[in-house]
Amino acid sequence: MSDKSPIEQLPQQNVLVKVEDGIAWVTLNRPSKRNAINPGIVYEMCDVLDAIELTEEAKCVVFSGSGDAFSAGQDLKEYFREMEKAHPAMRERLQRANSMWQWRRLMHFSKPTIAMVNGWCFGGAFQLLCACDLAVADEDASFGLSEINWGIIPAGIVTKSVAMALSQRAALYYILTGDTFDGREAAKIGLVNFAVPKDQLQAKTITLAKKLMEKNPVVLRACKSAYHYVREMSWDASAEYLGAKLDQSKLRDPERGAVKGMSQFLDEKSYRPGLGNYRRED
Ligand code: COA
User: Fold this and answer.
1) Test site for ligand 1: of 34, 120, 127, most ligand atoms within 8 A of the Cβ
2) pTM (2 decimals)?
């Protein structure tokens, strides 16, 4: 058993992680390669997500990139070309690990997640972007589904991510043309929540993270999980599932938020649920 905390045990090479004031800042760290996602990032990120889940002080996670890129997508050399020569089992292992961190783990991550898009964001990076709960972009960041420009379809889970996040018109326009677009357009089409000038990007992200950290974490997690599952379910199955999920979140909630909130509104008449949070500290 190591005396080091889970975050201290991380290699901090391809991915940097620090926790400050409740926020785990996760930075893709290959600036000279525009943070293209290579096997090093993939395997390190699986451990990073485990470490953050085990770290109580980390209440919210923010993903961004070193230098002037968020991420230029999957690494064309190390992830694609070099893996063509690898043993099929190694290739499958890598693809499995990549889907694991980019969407299976992230979409249902136990803590809220924000993508802070600080620059170039292409192809495979859309998986990370869309799997995060919320997103804030530099208004001059450059986005693109460039796959069509070099003769492939947006695979991995990129097309699915984009189909879930955007309208058909916007998704197909950018998939079929490969045109780049900026952060302002990303906000307009709903790919990110906010686009702000570069010098306000971090402050805006912190404000958003703080808003999420004020909420009941058990219920926050149940909300996002429920959202992702019901999108794929029938109406009847959704009603059944949401009823069960509601009971589960009440049972699992150590602060008994539902009881507190109701009592503060109905008995004490000390707050209005439509206007803000119940008092969690009571
Ligand atoms: N895979 C592998 N390497 C990449 C990469 C990627 N997706 N994106 C950038 N790089 C590498 C470049 O090969 C270059 O490496 P080198 O210095 O060894 O030659 C380095 O990163 C810098 O890239 P460069 O193109 O010189 O930077 P730029 O600032 O002029 O342009 C981009 C930035 C993002 C516009 C450009 O790098 C690009 O188009 N990248 C590919 C984006 C893409 O299509 N991604 C989809 C992949 S799924």
Assistant:
1) 34
2) 0.97
